[in-house]
Amino acid sequence: MTKTISINLGGLLFHIDDLAFQHLQAYLEAIERQFSNETERKEIMQDIESRISELFSERINREKEVVSAAVVEAVIGIMGEPLDFAPSNETSYSEHKNENSKRGIHKRMYRDPDERVLGGVCAGLAAYFNSESWLFRILFIAFSFFFLSGALIYLALWIIIPEANTTAQKMEMRGEPITIENIKNTVISEFERVKQRIKW
Prior knowledge:
Layout: E1 4-9, E2 12-17, H1 18-34, H2 41-62, E3 66-67, H3 69-79, H4 90-102, H5 121-128, H6 133-146, H7 150-160, H8 167-174, H9 180-199
Parallel strand pairs: 2-3
Antiparallel strand pairs: 1-2
Helix pairs in contact: 1-3, 2-3, 2-9, 5-6, 6-7
């Protein structure tokens, strides 16, 4: 008989068996130790926990209700080990990054709230298609001016396309692998962007 525990991870409730819980707890503690010197540690940990809860949701909905040690192992395999990006182990991290890119990272379309002028539709399309947002802005203006449909298409896309609110969604929008290191880098760059805006 296996003992199960209820946990709240990233705002979602999960039932997890005792062995899996111990493994997950040790993993999260190891990550937190890696970020002990980072001023954005709290935000990084929140984003990592949110991503782990998303991955748990994907797996237990299809397989079973209780999070097992095998599910935790699979999620750690996707997220990466804390030692994979330790300063003394740069080669190991780059190898891990290459492994993740080989798995086939799937892009998703989101509206980009960081680079938006109105709703973030053009910035989101630019991130998805690896292009410049001004090209899409000119395209929508031209369609609005000549065919009167650009504004309607823009409004429809604003309603249909979800906004990238979490760090994981912003990375998915750009087609980046959602690993611990990438989450950390994204959170830090967002903090830097906010600091620059405050200075101006």
